[in-house]
Amino acid sequence: MRYLTFALAKGRLAKKTLEILEQIGFTCDEMKDPDSRKLIFVNEEQKIKIFLAKATDVPTYVEYGAADIGVVGRDTILEEGRKLYEVIDLGLGKCRMCVAGPKEAKELLQHGELIRVATKYPNIAKDYFYNKKHQTVEIIKLNGSIELAPIVGLSEVIVDIVETGSTLRENGLDVLEEICTLSARMVVNQVSMKMEHERITKLISDLREVLSRN
Ligand code: PRP
User: Which of 5, 120, 123 is nearest to 61 (CA)?
Assistant: First the structure.
């Protein structure tokens, strides 16, 4: 039997995903050592490998088949636009992708004005403004602390993740429009889905059962 390889997004999501995988019988005790800097773990008995990658790279590993299966946020899946199958909503890390900014910017959105949009997610922002709203905007790519952009005058609005809303609130910004809801998803390589059909379908149905119980 060949190894089934999982790519998990490093951090809190990987930890929670492991807890779920444990419930369906996949174990990897070696991964629980908080001081370990190891990136890949093998369970010889169950013929599985689990590796930890940067979240934005997970869809790449899965598209190229370096991982059969990946677990990553829907924000990353949408932004990366890779060819893969999205098979399960794990319901972890629920949040929303929103257009946010100062209250006054709402009018600029309603009148379809040429505005600047700062974001870590240029593809999601482009798709929303160009294809859904048919509004021409200038997209400015940033790498973090996006909420700063409208405060310091870099852009009129931002496209960003809102979870509790406290970052927006504490910086005097509001949600102006909601783009979509987000949560962690399991994705599968398209060839693996055919070659390892039995194992992967069993994994999906076991996961569905565990998730319905939680
Ligand atoms: C994310 C996101 C928001 C914040 C939303 O940032 O970009 O800034 O969390 O969470 P909240 O609604 O609960 O306040 P992250 O912490 O990932 O850091 P970043 O600034 O580097 O993107």
Answer: 5
